Amino acid sequence: MEFREDEKTLERVRYILKKVDMPYIKAEGLFCVKSRGSRGRAIARIYSFPRVWQLALKLTPKYVIEVISERFDKLARSDMDRVLIHELMHIPKTFSGSLVPHKCFGKRKICAKTVEVIYQEFVKNDEK
Which positions fall inside the Putative phage metallopeptidase domain (predicted)? Predict the structure, then answer.
């Protein structure tokens, strides 16, 4: 697999964050990479920076969003935005370096329906 820094996707993530209600996400703690050659089915992934590493390296929480070029680049802009929103939803309100699972306490917290709610907020605020 190949990885490279992806400023274009990072700019889009930052733009989305300006339009949706996720004030707990610190844009300076986000990074994006684009990969090529993945054999998995994912379109994108988010990576955390657990507390133990933060303490050992004396660094603040960070998150990396990886977009898989072969799948992500083929999407329409609206679907790209939905994928990025989905990955952002994995970031907890504490911005602690951990991740929110798809299911939490038996309820689906991150699914197409909840992503669509935030996407519609984004679209509404993007028109202004």
Answer: 2-102
